[in-house]
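Local shape tokens

___
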Amino acid sequence: MSMFDKIKGLFFEEDPNAKKSTPQPEATKQSAPSKSTSSTPPAQVKIDLSNKKVDGKFVDVLMKAIEANNLDGFDYLEYKQSLQSLSKMEMNEQTKYQSAFAMAKTMGATPSKLIQSADHYLKVLQQEQSKFNQALKNQKDRQITGKEQEIKDSEALILKKQKQIETLKSEIEQHKKSLEKIKGGIHQAASKVEATNRNFQVAYQLVVGQIEKDVKNMKSYLK
């Protein structure tokens, strides 16, 4: 199992019936980290979260960012792996965290070091979100804002043509058809960009929520 798969397995369970993920949209590609050592093709991960589906493309983007910024030695990721190994055992949450820490101490871990490394991965994910937001903005500017200007230009041209003589009516009708086509393209582009944003945010909130919960519990249970 590659390091990427190990890290991914800490946060997500693979859906055995899921199809392989399709190529990433442009906003996703721009937000993906360039330093990925994994050669394993990304698998489509679909985790049910309050009737929402997590898009496997964005899961892979976030997991690859963590993989590319994995700290040396025993840190939060290794501690989370220990927590995961205890997940099926019948013990309360506090005991689970403390039991995993007992093993972590033998590797030189301290509560502060674990929390600091968890904060490191939160910052990595926040940086990934910033890159995604910029890529999303670029996509909106290119696919929506520019098209809105085309609509304004076409409307102005229609008004000009309407003032001309009867022989220009056919040309006016052609511009009207072009205008409707542009509006349809704007609607489709806006829907696609919004869907892309929703899918990323669901994946981002799921991963960040797990880490924040672990940080809260480590602060509470590990003394």
About this structure: The radius of gyration is 25 Å.
